[in-house]
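Re: beginner question about structure tokens

> Can someone show what the tokenized structure looks like for a real chain? I only ever see the sequence side.

Sure, here's an example I had lying around. Input first:
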Amino acid sequence: MIRYALTRLGLLVLGLVVASVLIFVTLRVLPGDVAQQIAGTNSTPEQVAALREQLGLDVPLPTQYLEWMAGLVRGDLGASLVTGTPVAAELVAKAQVTVPLGLMSMVVALLIALPFGVVAALRRGRAGGTALSFGAQALAAVPVVWAGMMLVVVFAVWLGWLPAQGFPRSGWADPGRAIAALVLPAVTIGIVEGAMLMRFVRSATLSAMGQDFVRTAAAKGLTRRAALLRHGLPTVGLSIVSVLGLQVAGIVVGAVVIEQLFTLPGIGRMLVADVGLRDLPKVQGELLALTGVVLVIGFVVDLVHRGLDPRQREAS
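And the corresponding structure tokens:
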């Protein structure tokens, strides 16, 4: 297990390095000059050149990349070209919105996927199972922006139960208002991601029901449902753990869109604003941080899956 963990850790580090190269190169290909944007339209070429030198933009790109990587090794993500604030401090502040939003979205997705996926498998071929399967396919195809607007119309405009946009200025000092502000965004992401995850749960449950040990348990007198719940759910759990890593990436992408829709001061909204400002150090720090979160969660999922699956332990 230790050797496997070290191997996966090495792949994680390699993935971060490759991601850093891709992020750095891609951002430099984007059109526009951040020095020109900061200096203003009335600035002279000499002023823009001086500002480029001051910001370190006149240094060759390989040197800029190596300086960025040296800072990352020290835990320094750099500073914003526009405001001068440390990128790490900005990420920590915005993560207080994005991280709870992601966790709440995952909880909503699991509450939808697990029970309805199992029921859809148990009632396969019946009207209830067919309706659940069709509903999951329909919800998985719904654009997250449209789902968010519909929830706002119903629960914020018509019923007035929840706020439509914004986050309290006091932040988590007022936990009731903070949670209320995240309910609709979390439900929006959770419904779409939960519908996609439900299809995997249904498939994994059907596969478990066809296993020999489940059929043997049913032959010994257990009902099909009891045999599945007692002997088949661990197998379903392994499949779900494998898929959860992929769901995290969907939640991260959904958070970027949803934070714009609900005007939440999170990492996603900050990322969109910084791309428009061509604030390269902040954008590359934000993208690398989001990529790192996805890779770390995938690393943890791999370790958990290997620890829970006796077949992988025996094979090693």
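Each token stands for a local structural state, so reading them left to right follows the chain. Residues 90-315 form a domain with the MetI-like fold fold (CATH 1.10.3720.10).
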